[in-house]
Design brief:
The chain is α/β, with parallel strands linked by helices. It has helices spanning 2-6, 51-65, 99-107, 118-125, 128-131, 157-162, 185-197, 218-233, 248-257, 273-280, 310-323, 329-338, 341-354, 402-411, 419-422, 424-432; strands spanning 11-16, 24-28, 31-37, 71-74, 89-93, 112-115, 132-133, 139-141, 171-174, 204-209, 240-243, 260-263, 285-288, 303-305, 362-363, 374-376, 380-383, 386-389, 394-396, 436-438. The protein is globular.
Length: 441
């Protein structure tokens, strides 16, 4: 939005009303922020509001749209599809797992839709795009870009001082994620335990942001207690540090002080910024082959492991630590080139400025099993441990069911599947499990 303002467009940013603080301010040239929408804060559950608050949200947005030429929805979580019927609507899909984002892709009436990764593009194409006519022709792949002015190797001393870290006595593993189960904190503790107990790296400390006060509902309290109990059980209390949340302008120093950044959870990320921001700052990232991490970057730029194999992750981390591996300047530049901020800004500018009003999207649903050919769903991967299913978060092997056994055998020689190959009932079962999808053009 700052870029659009800088080239002469007037931009009004509507966002959730903060509990305290300024409601309206100038963010940059031609860009005004109005923090006036009474959504629930903090994330998640933005719609945990009263009916009258939702009414006010609609009135406030519609009032602003009376003077607008375009309506851009950042993420697909505005679940009020009747807004802005007279002007072009552009939406970006930035997540494929949280309920609001998933539902948003099905009920959106966006005229153009930006997807932040090929993985996210394919998820939308083979889900909402399978039942909404003409949705797929509105999809555009615009990968997130990294700002080299923000993310680059940086002297970490200021951040280390603020967080009271000892860079001489300790080596730090980074877990810069929200403290949610799917983000991989438990998995990171398991890896840390192996590195400390079996490899003897007693100087290792895992850094993680603390739970936000507003996130401490019953589920969050239970999860935090479970993790603290696990730390005690594995005798890791001295090897884990929770710290306050940092500003964006502090993150380069934070990444730079780490030896490894871990992103080994089972959440199927649409993009997964932190793993790639870390690379731009010179710190190696280890990611699980889940979601976009399978394909976002080639293997020579990022360390990839199968999900749920802490011994393999620990061995990989030990090798990185022993060799003191860093991301070379050439590899940093390759990451920045593949995830170009300039290309992202141009892509969004062209999409928003060039958007035209289209006919409303309509559901056109027929039996998926009547399609001629099928393939493995984009959220699944065939591995030597079976088929990993991102949305189930586990490997489906030959013992799972006869249908899975048949599919694994078939996929070893042929990527295309038909009812004749596996049988009509088997195909129906695999469709219902979300393992295969009809082939689309």
């Amino acid at each position: 939005m700052l870029h659009l303002g800088s080239i002469g467009h007037d931009v009004v940013l509507l966002c959730a009303k903060t509990v305290v603080g300024v409601r309206r301010f100038k963010l940059g040239k031609n860009v005004e922020v109005k923090a006036i929408l009474p959504f629930h804060l903090p994330f998640p559950q933005p719609y945990a509001v009263t009916p009258y608050e939702l009414t006010n949200i609609i009135r406030l947005i519609q009032g602003e749209l009376q003077q607008a030429d375009r309506f851009y929805i950042h993420d697909s979580e505005l679940l009020i599809p009747g807004l802005a019927t007279d002007i072009p609507v552009v939406c970006s899909v930035r997540d494929n797992i949280y309920p609001e984002s998933v539902l948003g892709t099905f009920i959106s009436q966006a005229d153009e839709i930006a997807c932040v990764s090929q993985y996210s593009f394919d998820v939308v194409k083979y889900t909402a795009g399978a039942v909404l006519s003409q949705l797929n022709e509105r999809l555009h792949l615009i990968p997130n870009g990294l700002d080299p002015q923000i993310f680059h190797p940086t002297d970490p001393s200021a951040v280390a001082k603020e967080l009271d870290l000892d860079l001489i006595r300790n080596r730090y593993l980074l877990f810069p994620h929200r403290p949610e189960a799917g983000k991989g904190f438990r998995e990171s503790l398991e890896v840390l335990h192996i590195l400390v107990q079996q490899y003897g790296y007693s100087d290792l400390v895992l850094l993680a942001p603390d739970w936000l006060e507003g996130m401490r509902g019953s589920l969050e309290r239970e999860y935090k207690k479970e993790m603290l109990d696990l730390m005690e059980e594995k005798q890791l209390e001295d090897n884990v540090r929770f710290h306050k949340w940092l500003r964006q302008d502090q993150m380069a120093g934070y990444y730079s002080l780490g030896k490894i950044t871990l992103s080994i959870g089972k959440n199927p990320e649409a993009f997964g910024n932190v793993a790639y921001e870390s690379l731009a700052c010179g710190t190696p990232s280890v990611v699980a082959r889940v979601g976009t991490h399978r394909t976002q970057l080639p293997d020579h730029l990022i360390f990839k492991t199968d999900y749920g194999n802490p011994m393999a992750v620990a061995a990989l981390c030990a090798d990185i630590l022993e060799k003191r591996t860093r991301v070379s300047a050439a590899d940093q530049q390759e990451v920045l080139s593949k995830l170009s901020l300039v290309r992202q800004l141009k892509g969004y500018t062209d999409l928003i400025v060039g958007a035209k009003k289209r006919e409303p999207l309509k559901f056109e649903v027929g039996p998926a099993s009547q399609k001629a050919f099928f393939k493995l769903a984009p959220w699944c991967e065939l591995t030597n441990r079976g088929i990993f299913h991102d949305y189930i978060g586990k490997y489906l092997d030959a013992n799972e069911s006869g249908a899975i056994k048949k599919l694994i055998g078939h996929l070893k020689t042929n990527a295309l599947i038909s009812s004749e190959d596996l049988g009509f009932s088997t195909v129906n079962e695999l469709i219902a499990k979300g393992v295969i999808v009809p082939v689309q053009a």
